[in-house]
Automatic annotation (TrEMBL):
Similarity remark: Belongs to the class-V pyridoxal-phosphate-dependent aminotransferase family. SerC subfamily.
Co-factor remark: Binds 1 pyridoxal phosphate per subunit.
UniProt keyword annotation of Oxidoreductase present: no
SUPFAM superfamilies: PLP-dependent transferases
Binding site residues for L-glutamate: R39
Superkingdom assignment: Bacteria
Organism name: Marinobacter shengliensis
Catalytic activity, as annotated: O-phospho-L-serine + 2-oxoglutarate = 3-phosphooxypyruvate + L-glutamate; 4-(phosphooxy)-L-threonine + 2-oxoglutarate = (R)-3-hydroxy-2-oxo-4-phosphooxybutanoate + L-glutamate
PANTHER family, A to Z: PHOSPHOSERINE AMINOTRANSFERASE (PTHR43247:SF1)
Molecular-function annotations in GO: O-phospho-L-serine:2-oxoglutarate aminotransferase activity
Protein name: Phosphoserine aminotransferase
Lineage: Bacteria, Pseudomonadati, Pseudomonadota, Gammaproteobacteria, Pseudomonadales
Cellular localization per UniProt: Cytoplasm
Length: 357
């Protein structure tokens, strides 16, 4: 089966098999990783190895702390303003889709939000040119969403935020290709796409941004506290952390993010090329800003949606239904989706269009 779910998403089969093999007895300890103390030597080694591998994969220097937090990416929508607004009254946000909007709505609870640019009028099908952004030199930070998972809209550039810390919700693009981490003040990513199981959220924060949390910030949301305690202020999501570590090892075996980026570019190009050359299917996104990870598409006759999905499922092409707010279809093709999965989808789409188009 090929699972095109946007998240929780398909994980590498090799990772799942290793987890299965180690489930009851992790390397002769007589315990599952799930049953280990997070303070034990064994688990601390697992946790350290995961962080080390992530640092190596993403090119994260010692200037940054890597935090394994909980509450998913959504909890960061409030954690970020609580920690980074400091004595500044406002932060800048770019609005390019549903996830941007959620981040903006939450930040408004804690301070003034300046929406510097929005592509909402155009139905979130493009990214506003940065020369038109109304950014402010005294903003606490500039927040953007490099890949809008629902809309399938992705930046092909890293915004220039000057001296203002750049904050990015990389939930659905993290580790999909090389990125210069040094351009960012903070990156966060919900794990359930390219990292591991849901609930875990990885935060990469430049160390000079630690220690600025507001007094009333919940302890569990204070980056400084989490960093000082090696993400073990409380009991961390140990099993998710372990599984993420297995995914990082797998990714290194595939050649790391550079090799993965090439495969991802090829997978996305194939699917978009097919959609663009077949009259039966359409993708509304400005071609320059089409997502590599999430590819929404519509059928020329949407009364056939149900039939399309049923036929897909019969071929074990799973979870192709688009987000409820957008409709149509969406194929999420993260790192763990093999190229054969994309080929199988295209074969099915071609056949369906021929028979029913
Ligand atoms: N941001 C983006 C870009 C996402 O795709 C998602 C989830 O799909 C989230 C935030 C929310 O993540 P979570 O469900 O882990 O809170």
């Amino acid at each position: 089966a090929f699972n095109f779910c946007a998240g929780p998403a398909t994980l590498p089969e090799a990772v799942l098999k290793q987890a299965r093999d180690e489930m009851l007895d992790w390397r002769g300890t007589g315990m599952s990783v799930m049953e280990m103390s997070h303070r034990s030597d064994e688990f601390v080694a697992i946790a350290d190895a995961a962080e080390k591998d992530l640092r190596e994969l993403a090119g994260i220097s010692d200037d940054y702390a890597v935090l394994f937090m909980q509450g998913g990416a959504s909890s960061q929508f409030s954690t970020i303003p609580l920690n980074l607004l400091g004595d500044k009254s406002s932060a800048d946000y770019v609005n390019t889709g549903i996830w941007s909007k959620k981040a903006i709505a939450e930040a408004k609870r804690y301070g003034n939000v300046n929406v510097v640019a929005s592509s909402e009028d155009g139905g979130f099908t493009s990214i506003p040119d940065q020369s038109t952004w109304n950014t402010r030199a005294d903003a606490a930070y500039l927040h953007y969403t490099p890949n809008e998972t629902i809309g399938g809209l992705e930046y092909d550039f890293i915004p220039d935020s000057g001296r203002v810390p750049l904050v990015a919700d990389m939930s659905s693009t993290m580790l999909s290709r090389p990125v210069d981490i040094n351009k960012f003040g903070l990156i966060y990513a919900g794990a359930q796409k390219n990292i591991g199981p849901s609930g875990l959220v990885v935060v990469i924060i430049r160390k000079d941004l630690l220690g600025k949390a507001r007094k009333e910030t919940p302890t569990m949301m204070n980056y400084q506290v989490i960093a000082d305690n090696g993400s073990m202020y409380n009991t961390p999501a140990t099993y998710s952390w372990y599984l993420s570590g297995l995914v990082f090892k797998w990714l290194k075996e595939q050649g790391g993010v550079k090799a993965m980026g090439e495969i991802n570019a090829r997978k996305a190009r194939k699917l978009y090329d097919f959609i663009d050359t077949n009259d039966f299917y359409a993708n509304p996104i400005d071609p320059r800003f089409r997502s590599w990870m999430n590819i929404p598409f519509t059928l020329a006759d949407d009364t056939l949606n149900g039939e399309f999905l049923k036929g897909a499922e019969a071929r074990r092409l799973l979870n192709l239904q688009g987000h409820r707010s957008v409709g149509g279809m969406r194929a999420s093709i993260y790192n763990a989706m093999p190229e054969e999965g994309v080929d199988a989808l295209i074969d099915y789409m071609a056949e369906f269009a021929k028979e029913r188009g």
